[in-house]
Amino acid sequence: MVQGLAALLVKGLSGCEAEEIVSVEASSVIEALGLSASLTPSRNNGFLNMFRLMQKKALGFLTEVCRVTQVLATLSSKLLILSRVIEYSIP
To answer: N or C: which end of the chain has fewer CB within 10 A?
Structure first.
């Protein structure tokens, strides 16, 4: 049962952007899938916890992308400055 719920999440979230995964309200997933009537409270909590873990990983990915983007922007501006210095220093 747990593997089926995990597979359902993987299939449902595959192809989604990280922003989409993070922005979804966890409880709405259960309602949208119509699982609330079929799952015991324990399975419902487990499903929500799996989904929240996926959201946490997506948020971590977004955070890392932002960090790398900032580093690349800094390097790009430094390279631009360096290329201008070299351009003006060569006679």
So the answer is: C
